[in-house]
Write a structure and sequence with these properties.
Blueprint lengths: L13 E2 L7 E4 L2 E8 L10 H9 L8 E5 H7 L3 E3 L7 H7 L14 H11 L1 H16 L5 H6 L1 H4 L15 E3 L5 H12 L4 E8 L2 E8 L5 H7 L14 E6 L7
Helix pairs in contact: 1-8, 3-4, 4-5
Amino acid sequence: MAATENTAVQEPPVVVNPGKDEIRTVAGVPYRRMGVHTHVLDRTDDICDVARRYVAPHCQPGDMIVLSEKALGCTQGRAIKLTDIHPRPLARLLSRFVTKTPAGIGLGMPETMEMAFQEVGTPRILLATVVSAVGKLFGRRGWFYIVAGPKASSIDGPCSYTLPPYNQYVSLAPADPATAAREIAQAIGNNVGVAVIDLNDLGGSVLGSYGLSVSPETLVEILRDNPLGQASQRTPFGIIRACAGSSEG
């Protein structure tokens, strides 16, 4: 008998993404890093329901759950379609001077720069621009985002590897990530900690957390190589687990 034509290919629910190591040792403690597959999330999804459905079945007490800030933002309606953004002339001008990196386009397009103006205000963006220019005179980079703040640094636009349909959207920082982390931890149960993370292949930060067993700085080091990936992996959640027999001081 012929196979059913519409049989869906089932992806493993928990994976180690290609090119990433399953184990990373930080401060003498080895940690397993596992990505959790989900469907493509959007504003119709409740992030706590998603966590209960996809993450909770694979958790153990003491696990740390990490969630991409872009995925959380998408469920909060914080992904804005490019065609709905109308950059002002100043946004078009300033975006030309933003350094592009392999980690993402950041504010290097008029639409993302316009959203930075809307998110943090024109005076702060202008001040950040001036401070950045002064920093470059002294060979220092990154001063723009120090002044503009995390709402600006978390804004990103579509790249060649962006998962559809978000290759036509600008992603904004999620709203109240600390509260979201607490609600997700309570939804999963099992004494897990949760962190909302802003990661790329150049580094990252913890935007909000609840119940972590390590410091945010240690968690960023555990995730230094971005095991969730930033392309089409579709693993917005990750499970971080200290290996059996290890001792966390």
